[in-house]
Design a protein that fits this description.
It is a single chain. The protein is an alpha/beta fold. It folds into two domains: 159 residues, ATPase, nucleotide binding domain (Nucleotidyltransferase, domain 5, 2-Layer Sandwich); 187 residues, Nucleotidyltransferase, domain 5, CATH 3.30.420. The chain is 37% helix and 17% strand. A six-stranded mixed beta sheet has the order 3-2-1-4-6-5, with helices on both faces. Strands 9-8-7-10-11 form a five-stranded mixed beta sheet, with helices on both faces.
Length: 375
Amino acid sequence: MSTYKIFTINPGSTSTKIALFEGEMELFSKNVCHDAKSLAAFAAISDQFSYRRDMIEKLLNENGISLSGVDAVVGRGGGLLPMEGGTYEIDDLVLEHSQKGANGVQHPAMLGPRLAREFADLYQAKAYIVNPPDVDELQDLARMTGIKGVYRVIHLHALNLKEVAIRHSAHLGRAYEDCCYIVCHIGGGISVSAHRHGRMIDGFDITGGEGPMAPTRCGSISVADLLNYCEGKTLEEVKQLCTKKGGVVSHTGRSDALELSQKAQRGDPYAKILWDTMIYQIAKAIGSMAAVLHGRIDGILLGGGMVHNENLVKQITEACGWISAITSYPGEFEMEAMAAGAVRVLNQTETAKRYQGISKFQGFEFDKKGMSSVE
């Protein structure tokens, strides 16, 4: 087992998680919730940098944690243009794009690279990001849409999705690159994805309104219905349905999935149809990914906080267990996944990639040739 020391930083919407690992052993971890009023004082997410950095330093000092001798610092990536999965060095281009949110998505994860680089420079360590939300490994068939010039890209929980797949492969005594899985992350956001031989070849753009309804996201709905809904509303109001105010929040004003499931269990009819519909949509999405993989599936893997709920797992198993064996990995492994990605590079079992700063998908050959129609 490697003895590399890795410090990981994961800025979230309302909290910042930090953890220190030695090899696979977690030496220290802390999740600090931020006061909403404190965060609201910042005009832009990038302005929160000093506030979050100072809080991390305070936590380390209060707990007597020294980063002296740390080999690498890994930050949660965000704000970057679509890229292949893997571990990336945090260079100046990564810093520039993450700070401004080059992909147009404003999320605190975009602070991760800058925070990681700050601490890495301070302790003469390597700085990395691992499988950021901007991972895009779609196969060509998953790109095309019914609108000329509009192509699909995806944003999902790539870090936890890939880590669950890597862990399950190790459990099977196989390499992730040799397996085919349907992998789900079921938490505040819900990602359903198809993995073939180490690549996430299809999935749903959860920040764009695709996929199952989630606690804070609307999921897929009819375009015509959405256009009718847009009347009298601003574009920003409608966009927030995709990431903050859709799904369970739109119906109940709250995003607590546990509370919703408890109300459903007590017989609240509104809560029950809402809870069951969310699970129904997850199962339907899993079925679509089974078709993508042509039924050749080594397992259906469920990760994320809501997987602790036995009713949810039971319903998904009843709906999809005929497709393949279902294995649950409750909770999130984001901190462990970030550390593991750095260790793979330091162990030289994986090569660190360099961010190119351009979208991975640049169109099809017929786009480049200027073809205006099928000939």
